[in-house]
């Protein structure tokens, strides 16, 4: 009996890996074994990157708020304490957006 090989499935598997490796440098996008390793590593980096993105955006919002507050003579920790005592339910993302889009409203928040 002749040997039966499922070449359709194996080609599909290789094609999927090479498609994900599209745009990688050199053999990483051409050769299956090298591409497989590169894709596995890139998936690890993408998982970590999704976590880092959240941290980086929070840092950015805090930096923006701090820069605006310094002009008013406060520092960041004093401002956050003031917001918490006045029971404002705004997170740092919303405060940053208000600061960028509606600076006059942000000044009203500061004075209250």
List keywords for this structure.
112 residues, mainly alpha, c-terminal domain of poly(a) binding protein, 74% helix
Question: What is shown here, in short?
Answer:
By secondary structure, the protein is mostly helical. It has helices at 7-20, 32-71, 76-85, 92-101, 103-111.
Provide structural commentary.
With 112 residues, this protein is an all-alpha fold. It has a single domain, classed as Ribosomal protein L20, C-terminal domain (c-terminal domain of poly(a) binding protein). Helices cover 74% and strands 0% of the residues. It has five helices and no strands. Helix 1 packs parallel to helix 2 (32-71) and helix 4 (92-101) crosses helix 5 (103-111).
Give the secondary structure arrangement, pairings included.
Elements: H1 7-20, H2 32-71, H3 76-85, H4 92-101, H5 103-111
Distance between the termini: 86 Å
Mean pLDDT over the full residue set: 91
Largest sheet, if any?
none
Would you identify the regions where 5 or more consecutive residues have pLDDT less than 50? Answer: none
The total count of strands amounts to 0
> What is the element string, with H for helices and E for strands?
HHHHH
Q: What is the count of helical runs?
A: 5
Count of individual domains = 1
């Amino acid at each position: 009996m002749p040997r039966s090989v499922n070449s359709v499935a194996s080609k599909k598997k290789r094609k999927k890996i090479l498609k994900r490796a599209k745009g990688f440098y050199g053999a990483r996008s051409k050769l299956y074994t090298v591409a497989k390793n590169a894709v596995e590593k890139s998936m690890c980096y993408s998982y970590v990157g999704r976590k880092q993105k959240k941290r980086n955006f929070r840092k950015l919002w805090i930096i923006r708020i701090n820069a605006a507050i310094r002009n008013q003579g406060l520092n960041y920790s004093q401002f956050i304490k003031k917001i918490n005592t006045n029971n404002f339910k705004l997170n740092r993302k919303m405060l940053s957006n208000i600061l960028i889009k509606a600076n006059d409203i942000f000044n009203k928040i500061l004075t209250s």
